[in-house]
Design goal:
single chain, alpha+beta, 4-stranded antiparallel sheet
């Protein structure tokens, strides 16, 4: 028979190890789904807010709204991309039609997320006051890599896995 109590180091009160184990295990298991769900929700919020920030940046040329959600290197790439169009007097008009989270793999410090995204773009030539590129729907499969920084998820890398274009 396995004893259910053990003496403490000080020889004081005795603990019921079996009951204590059950309580600790129950608490751990009850909070585990909450942690996983909250983590997935926080990751999804980071990616969603990042994409909304990209939409705002293409309208204004200002990328400051991206900094709470992505590393400086990621934000800089977006800035260079936007400025390369605007230096040629081309301005993007874009919208996100859908953003579906296909797969989320996360541990306590890192996450990898695969999304299916449908964006619609067109480019306007401000100098000649005409459309430079017709409205196009692009479907992306995208991989985001994130890391936990000061208890917030931050995007570390964005990679387009595949894309399909359809002129509208």
């Amino acid at each position: 028979m396995i004893p259910t109590t053990v003496p403490t180091m000080t020889g004081g009160k005795r603990l019921r190890v079996g009951v204590l184990r059950k309580v600790v295990l129950s608490l751990f298991l009850s909070f585990l789904p909450l942690y996983a769900g909250a983590s997935d929700a926080a990751i999804q919020k980071t990616i969603t807010q990042y994409n909304l920030g990209v939409l705002e940046a293409v309208k204004t040329g200002k990328v400051h709204t991206l900094y709470p959600y992505a590393k400086e290197e990621v934000v800089t790439k977006i800035y260079v991309w936007i400025m390369s169009w605007q230096e040629n007097n081309l301005y993007m008009q874009a919208r996100i039609e859908s953003l579906d989270f296909k797969k989320i793999e996360a541990d306590q410090k890192h996450a990898r997320v695969t999304t299916n995204e449908v964006w619609t773009y067109r480019y306007y030539d401000a100098k000649n006051e005409k459309m430079a590129w017709p409205e196009t729907r692009i479907t992306y499969e995208t991989e985001y890599r994130l890391f936990l920084h000061n208890r917030r998820w931050m995007i570390d890398n964005v990679r387009v896995i595949s894309e399909k274009q359809e002129k509208l």
